[in-house]
What we know:
By secondary structure, the chain is of the alpha/beta class. The chain is 51% helix and 12% strand. Helix 19 packs across helix 24. It is globular and about 90 Å long. The structure holds (2S,3S)-3-hydroxy-2-methylbutanoyl-COA (T1G).
Amino acid sequence: xxxxxxxxxxxxxxxxxxxxxxxxxxxxxxxxxxxxxxxxxxxxxxxxxxxxxxxxxxxxxxxxxxxxxxxxxxxxxxxxxxxxxxxxxxxxxxxxxxxxxxxxxxxxxxxxxxxxxxxxxxxxxxxxxxxxxxxxxxxxxxxxxxxxxxxxxxxxxxxxxxxxxxxxxxxxxxxxxxxxxxxxxxxxxxxxxxxxxxxxxxxxxxxxxxxxxxxxxxxxxxxxxxxxxxxxxxxxxxxxxxxxxxxxxxxxxxxxxxxxxxxxxxxxxxxxxxxxxxxxxxxxxxxxxxxxxxxxxxxxxxxxxxxxxxxxxxxxxxxxxxxxxxxxxxxxxxxxxxxxxxxxxxxxxxxxxxxxxxxxxxxxxxxxxxxxxxxxxxxxxxxxxxxxxxxxxxxxxxxxxxxxxxxxxxxxxxxxxxxxxxxxxxxxxxxxxxxxxxxxxxxxxxxxxxxxxxxxxxxxxxxxxxxxxxxxxxxxxxxxxxxxxxxxxxxxxxxxxxxxxxxxxxxxxxxxxxxxxxxxxxxxxxxxxxxxxxxxxxxxxxxxxxxxxxxxxxxxxxxxxxxxxxxxxxxxxxxxxxxxxxxxxxxxxxxxxxxxxxxxxxxxxxxxxxxxxxxxxxxxxxxxxxxxxxxxxxxxxxxxxxxxxxxxxxxxxxxxxxxxxxxxxxxxxxxxxxxxxxxxxxxxxxxxxxx
Length: 691
Ligand code: T1G
């Protein structure tokens, strides 16, 4: 079916309606449909004006991202848009919803824009490592000014219809019938016999506007050293300001075509589709319906429990926060209120909204208060005995059909489920700290978790603004299991010759906000130390520090020293001397390591563990592993996540290095996974995902 249909009104308005669900992306067929619709309308003597409209909630979500990197299919979007802009009859865009990327560029090429009140307009290409490639860097500045346009493109966030009108981006907001309002506007232009072309709006740029643009541009470039597209965006806008539309369009297109091939954009596009793919569970079809979740209960009002309760409240789901003692409950409720007050002070939340969120949270003492909840999330102390006691009680208290979830970050969800007579209703919902901020949610599927419990958890994740990834049961699931390999490798690097700051500098240089040792000091060395003591695992340096009571920032000493409560650590000669002594005691000859070698020694074992996780089916796709690490552990998104990054490094090279590391350390767990070895001989994680 032609994705663009044309209807001609008695008044002589041809309405071209784009119908390409789910988001009316401007794929090849839509582009061809627009050109043939426009050509026919121009040739039709009864047609005096043209409206471009779209079906559904979205106007147009942009070019079809899935076409990038493939051989181009004419007509190109720039060609379509110059045909629209150059039209001999006025063309008005009827913007019914989101107009993003190429969708806004299409509207910009029209001679006027009418928006529905709920419409939002933006150029988010910056988030995909590219720049607008169909005139946005030229037509938007000419319509709203260079500095406001640059701010919109460098930020990538859409603006509301109201804001767009105030900026001069849209001409009108339709209270009634949108297409009718656009048609009236189009006929008015036809009547006038002349109509504005945003591309032609030369001379809009005052000296102040240019200066403001230049300031914003240098600021944005300084703040995003890893994103080559930010400088390319500034350059394209500048060429247009200085040399006019034609040269500006040429500079834009050249930069766009270069950036689409850039590994950064490939990585960000990989993540775009990976995030959406993660919400699909192989073997569970659309016929499985979610259970209703109109109320929730959270067991434990600690940092995690409080954050989880805030997620439900912010989604408008009434939540009962439950504690065993009144003091713990009051402390938990007070922490939630102070978190919201901080946001209000920062201006990221209004006090009305704060009160509304708080209105959805009720504090109670005693598990009985969970009796009516559709879902109960346990966020109590990470101890199997405590979990078993709580789930045993919930088994008696919770209503039939309630979902019983645990927020454990590494304990055996199957064992927890078996403490109840309804293991099919038990699932892991592993939130990341701070739970009301971090987007990632590891949904841990137990051996007996019912399909509709999974579907309900996925649905709920979207409702509370989380990015769900379904994982299987193993120690540490996907994220923490791979993190343990990095932590082990980091310890080995210290004993082999590196110092904490060298390892952390290599990791921040790679793109993480914080290195492993600064992160341990922030989280507290005592947490890992107690967990290791429980499992018998060893981390010589961290254990030696913890045994002396040095737990990091909270004790002023750890891998670094924190004078007077400083948040950023300083090199600590005592810790460095301790590390050297521990090497000597093990007869290790210390040596120096380059940043590349440090990254290889830290990240290759993680990739290897990721491959084992795929072999065991703990994760369904390598792209799921990437989504977990980018959204839960701050892996730099411009590399696409550990598995995508590994493809870029070369799996054969990683296999060779892992074989050497396993021989050097005598640690068989570093021997390459069979899957990794196989793919190193030919194939890729992406192929495996697609299989
Ligand atoms: N191209 C191809 N597929 C797209 C798409 C796009 N632009 N946008 C969405 N999809 C698919 C998506 O993969 C999913 O597929 C389904 O649509 C629903 O999306 C020349 C070069 C619009 C806010 O960056 O931000 O224009 O998983 O699950 O939560 O200058 O999609 O169902 O198979 O996200 O309601 C610029 C990208 C492109 C916007 C809707 N545009 N899209 O969110 O649904 S570059 C963007 C979004 C460009 C020009 C340049 C969101 C959304 P599936 P969804 P949603």
